[in-house]
Amino acid sequence: MTETVSTGAARTKGKGLKLERVFSTKGTHPYDAITWERRDVVQQNWKTGETVFEQRGVEFPDFWSVNASTIVTTKYFRGAVGTDAREWSLKQLIDRVVKTYTKAGTDHGYFATDADAEIFEHELTWLLVNQYFSFNSPVWFNVGTQSPQQVSACFILSVDDSMDSILNWYKEEGFIFKGGSGAGLNLSRIRSSKELLSSGGTASGPVSFMRGADASAGTIKSGGATRRAAKMVVLDVDHPDIEEFVMTKAREEDKIRALRDAGFDMDLGGADITSVQYQNANNSVRVTDEFMRAVEDGTSFGLKARGTGEVIETVDARDLFRKISQAAWECADPGLQYDDTINDWHTNPETGRITASNPCSEYMSLDNSSCNLASLNLLKFLKDDDTFDAALFQKAVEFIITAMDISICFADFPTEAIGQTTVDYRQLGIGYANLGALLMAMGLGYDSEGGRSMAAAITSLMTGTSYKRSAELAGIVGPYTGYARNADAHKRVMRKHQAANDVVRVLHTEDGRVHKLATQAWADVIKLGEKNGFRNAQASVLAPTGTIGFMMDCDTTGIEPDFSLVKFKKLVGGGSMQIVNQTIPRALKKLGYQEEQIEAIVAYISEHGHVVDAPGLKTEHYEIFDTAMGARALKPMGHVRMMAAAQPFLSGAISKTVNLPESATVEEIEDVYLQSWKLGLKATAIYRDNCKVGQPLSDGGGKAKKDAADKAASDSAEAVETKVVEKVVYAPVRKRLPKSRVSRTTSFTVGGAEGYMTSGAHDDGQLGEVFLKLGKQGSTLAGVMDAFSIAVSIGLQYGVPLETYVSKFTNLRFEPAGLTDDPDVRMSQSIMDYIFRRLALDYLSFEERSMLGIYSAAERQRHLETGSYEPLVEETGSAAELVEAPSSPAPAASVGDLEEVETKDTHGSEAREVPAQVSTGEAKTTAELFEKLTGTAVDSPLCMTCGTKMRPAGSCYVCEGCGSTSGCS
């Protein structure tokens, strides 16, 4: 990477920015207001047990989670591990970045006085150390080091119809991949395979050149990168090779399927997957309004020669649209980018059209350009009274957008062309994370009018404030170089943003308050922009926020809803613990539930992973806790409508994938693509569960289903050869109880109703039979309970685990219910609820019960005294050996190991985390926990660094174990 562009001396038109302290306190450095602690960071590959990283004694604030400190230490600390040059404190990391920004701002005339520069430094430091925002990863990697000062994660390249340009594309893309970033480009200038070369021969076409670029990306990835090479390939819908482009990855999926059936290892990362092509890029078709209208009308559409622009082939628009949707149904590619919408919001049309995007599809700008990103943690701006502090949010945006613009003054770029365009147009990408958690905490459903209006108002305020500050900076250090040429177009787009803000329909007090500030911000944008112009050609995008989302301890990434209501939390002493999202108790309190009801609902969620039938939860509140996956998964159009609410207030686009169930049809995908166009989105990507063969699943769910479907298809074809296959039938075997067995009889009272339960066990102590006595002999109730007892007993003897019965029958609600005479189960929602809680206490181990959230009175008392449900550990002998109490096995990690974390908003309020049961040590990420709770597979790749299953983040994937991402953020 080479520094190719210098901004030169500052073009000072005013006296510099006059700044006020908002977050920090005069006379107190932000670090001095924080309690710091030392931690040991040891990272292992959870699949192999191999230690992949170790640094002890690192320094972090006490409120930073173990996960956040681990990811920052492993990803962002610079210097060789084990040497004095290695960074060991978050203070060093933040100082390295912030002081570089402050010095550059001073050198280039951004601040009125040295005092203003100091305020800028302290405010930026406070915001970062308190997790209010984060720059994108390249800033933390490079700024303030001896490396080139690359600050951008997103790049757009260009390629022309010449061999020199094509080979240069391979070269530039390779250098960008080598640095761990990603790039996108449009191949539509390359003539099609249906056109002639100047020599008279036939052209190869862009798809053939994609093979070379794909192989290059795969080689660079396998050469040592910690994540896949992220790239985007775009082709215009009127290119003559469009059908070949659309089907490239779908045909490769057929190849994968055939090779898998032949016995080759075709899982992602498998030994034989490298024989498959086009797997290192996301593909998108750039569609026009003309094409989409032809699809609606059912008319023909012309494919045009690249050189002359003449129509050389006519196709049926609906047929082509169907092929695009069919391919997406089969392999999730291609996505769509809506060309006319993108360029209608383009601030620099006089310089050139927008033809492509970065790999995650949020950055859309000129060819040979780059964008540096930063994202705010929205949940930090939610006050004690559950109102959004819009004024404080606005102040934070002003500081952050100023810092982002300063970074271009000292940044280095991978190519001269990219450097020149970035300096001339100064594209920025401010965005946010934790929207899903914020809406939940405020009691707003993600797929609701209230949720969308709140999201629209916040996004409008963010971008309006950014452009207002951009206009103020233009008055101090001058507008961007390309502004004069594009002034009318830029101001037209600002008026479009303002008009979109004016039609936002506010539905409650909160979004009304935010919208009022946004309206004023856009008025200031128009006024100041007319006077000063603008410092930046673009200001905002919504990125995936993968790694930096973990750095800020966010529950949700980017614009995404919550992935799951339960997740794993890393513990200080090692291991992990399952917790219910800390946002849920806050949301329930906001909705008016009492403490006892909240505890019951949280316990239910920790056991089941969803809110359906949670005790005491009103059905009208279910939508607030809808997630991306699971029993209450959001409908595909819920994702699309949320994107449409935010899109009019973004300079760029949104990195997000619309998830569809495996049962989704091609027609449903067509509808998502069509409605996305009508709602004004700039890009849409879809993913249908289990549509890819080459995905490593934790169980055989996806592959087994695919195998079954393939077999059904082959069986329906005419048989070529008759084969005799021996049919093997597996049947459960009944394990009968011995003639003489140990049993226990328990008398109980539930809500005043008396009864008796007799349970018998096998010689190994496993429960084998249950008899229930309720009501008089001969009564209907007694007969029903006898039949129920026999059914349960036979099921137990045929191998149905007791924990399955416990999970099904606990929390079952009917009368009689209420107080019991059992000290271990003081309250019961029904007789069934009591019986199976008692059986769990009598016959399940502590570990098994803890996974179901069932504890004895002694264990609950121990938790109040020690913070742990675990059996006590005693210290015996001169060697002080730790001896576990023999009553029950201990889990892999205890609640007592949980790091105490308090998240505070701007008014110092505390939001406590709610621990659920302890993990067994098998599931290590939220994705794996989701699979365990629901029995369904998460169709995500395994992390190349630590081997755990990643989870979706925007249109990319992110690893919760080490913070690695599959994309460019």
Automatic annotation (TrEMBL):
Residues 152-687 form the Ribonucleotide reductase large subunit C-terminal domain. Its cofactor is adenosylcob(III)alamin. One of its GO terms (molecular function) is ribonucleoside-diphosphate reductase activity, thioredoxin disulfide as acceptor. Its EC number is 1.17.4.1. Residues 41-131 form the Ribonucleotide reductase class II vitamin B12-dependent N-terminal domain. It catalyses: a 2'-deoxyribonucleoside 5'-diphosphate + [thioredoxin]-disulfide + H2O = a ribonucleoside 5'-diphosphate + [thioredoxin]-dithiol. CDD domains: RNR_II_dimer. Residues 883-895 have a biased composition (Low complexity). Signal peptide: none annotated. Residues 883-923 are annotated as: Disordered. It is an enzyme of class 1 (oxidoreductase). The keyword Disulfide bond applies. PANTHER family: RIBONUCLEOSIDE-DIPHOSPHATE REDUCTASE (PTHR43371:SF1), VITAMIN B12-DEPENDENT RIBONUCLEOTIDE REDUCTASE (PTHR43371). NCBIfam families: NrdJ_Z, PRK06556.1. Catalyzes the reduction of ribonucleotides to deoxyribonucleotides. May function to provide a pool of deoxyribonucleotide precursors for DNA repair during oxygen limitation and/or for immediate growth after restoration of oxygen. This is Vitamin B12-dependent ribonucleotide reductase. It comes from Nocardioides potassii. The lineage of its organism: Bacteria, Bacillati, Actinomycetota, Actinomycetes, Propionibacteriales.
